[in-house]
């Protein structure tokens, strides 16, 4: 993965417009967040291989970035994205990594189901 | 003092769960000629450390961690490493009865005299808790007098308060090299820990030396 270049990522998001794609989204503070700091309220979400179709997709912000996908009946968005890669299987892998290199969010789009 | 065993079965959910506080024990058994089976439920797919600049993606991490797990097994001398194919962070949502069946099958096959896993209620991560519960459920199916010993790892903030001091202390100083080798093998997860620990050991920090020499377990307390 490399640091997000906004215009490049916008092109990649547009590649998947109006076709069935599989989505992986997760947010995380780590399973030990509350163990390490009892005052910390830990919450996260994870979804893998939801099949969706979007008619509009945007990357916004000045970094960390936000990505929003507009679907026929709803929306998907993520924030805190810093890095991306189009992998050897043509999947758009985006992630938000904190300054220590820990993943805080993953947002991935693929034409085939994630294994 | 480490008692002789017929066969040791270690069950943890994540690659590296064995490294910090059990690898010295595993390597000591191997050195004594005791067969050890390490069953690892997931490949740690949800590990957070990808580096910045990143060395992996969410999708490539499991492949890297699988290799690290195999290297750790090699470092400890474990010949029988089993990867059970579950997914990180989802163990607690599986059917516990079926998970216990998986464990029971291994117990029937291997006839271990000792099983090592996490102590349910005192092991913090939901996957640790679910793994410990499944192992306890599987062992509870065996008549009380025929059950293998069950040593548990616990590290929740309240564990000593509620369980008391660990009743099993292994001196693993003969396996220090293997223990450090297991930790080093999981380098995407442990690089920071290892570097820090290596410095402390060099400085003869008493807590670090104690960590290297001793491993602590709680024998599971049955209700029946």
Report a brief summary of the structure:
The complex is a heterodimer of chains A (115) and B (224). Chain A is mainly beta and 115 residues long.
Describe the overall structure:
The complex is a heterodimer of chains A (115) and B (224). Chain A has two helices and nine strands. Chain A has 115 residues and is mainly beta. In chain A, strand 4 (54-60) and strand 5 (65-71) form a beta hairpin. The model of chain A has no long low-confidence stretch (mean pLDDT 96). With 224 residues, chain B is of the alpha/beta class. A seven-stranded mixed sheet of chain B has the order 3-2-1-4-5-7-6, sandwiched between helices. Chain B is globular, with a radius of gyration of 17 Å. The chains are: A mainly beta (115), B alpha/beta (224).
Q: Residue share in helices of chain B?
A: 40-55%
Shape of chain A: globular
Helix/sheet category of chain A? mainly beta
Protein chains sharing the most extensive interface: A-B, 29 and 19 residues
Largest sheet report of chain B: 7 strands, mixed
Strand content of chain A: over 45%
What's the helix count of chain B?
8
Order of the strands making up the biggest sheet of chain B: 3-2-1-4-5-7-6
User: Total number of helical segments of chain A?
Assistant: 2
Low-pLDDT segments, ≥5 res of chain B: none
- Provide the number of structural domains of chain A: 1
Mean pLDDT of chain A: 96
Low-pLDDT parts of chain A are none
Q: What are the secondary-structure elements of chain B, in order, as H or E?
A: EHEHEHEHEHEHHHE
What is the CA-atom radius of gyration of chain A, in angstroms? Answer: 15 Å
| Overall tally of domains of chain B | 1
CATH class of chain B: Alpha Beta
Quaternary structure classification = heterodimer
């Amino acid at each position: 993965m490399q640091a997000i270049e906004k215009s490049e990522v916008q092109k990649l998001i547009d590649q998947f417009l109006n076709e069935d794609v599989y989505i992986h989204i997760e947010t995380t503070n780590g399973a030990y967040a509350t163990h390490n700091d009892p005052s910390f309220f830990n919450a996260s979400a994870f979804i893998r291989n939801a099949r969706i179709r979007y008619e509009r997709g945007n990357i916004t912000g000045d970094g960390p970035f936000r990505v929003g996908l507009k679907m026929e009946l709803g929306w998907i968005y993520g924030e805190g994205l810093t890095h991306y890669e189009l992998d050897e299987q043509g999947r758009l892998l985006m992630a938000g990594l904190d300054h220590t290199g820990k993943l805080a969010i993953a947002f991935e789009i693929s034409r085939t189901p994630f294994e | 003092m480490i008692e002789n065993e017929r066969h040791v079965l270690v069950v943890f959910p994540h690659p590296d769960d064995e490294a910090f506080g059990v690898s010295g024990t595993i390597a000591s058994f191997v050195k004594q000629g005791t067969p050890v089976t390490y069953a690892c439920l997931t490949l740690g797919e949800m590990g957070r450390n990808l580096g910045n600049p990143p060395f992996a993606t969410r999708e490539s991490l499991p492949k890297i961690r699988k290799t690290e797990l195999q290297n750790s097994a090699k470092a400890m001398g474990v010949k029988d490493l089993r990867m059970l194919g579950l997914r990180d962070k989802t163990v607690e949502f599986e059917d516990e009865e079926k998970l216990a069946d998986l464990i029971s099958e291994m117990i029937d096959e291997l006839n271990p005299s000792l099983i090592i896993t996490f102590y349910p209620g005192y092991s913090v991560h939901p996957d640790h808790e679910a793994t410990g519960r499944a192992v306890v459920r599987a062992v509870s199916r065996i008549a009380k007098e025929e059950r293998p010993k069950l040593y548990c790892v616990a590290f929740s903030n309240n564990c000593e308060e509620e369980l008391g001091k660990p009743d099993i202390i292994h001196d693993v100083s003969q396996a220090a090299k293997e223990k450090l080798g297991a930790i080093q093998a999981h380098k995407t997860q442990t690089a920071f820990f290892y570097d820090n620990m290596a410095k402390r050991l060099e400085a003869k920090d008493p807590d670090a030396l104690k960590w290297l020499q001793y491993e602590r377990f709680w024998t599971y307390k049955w209700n029946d």
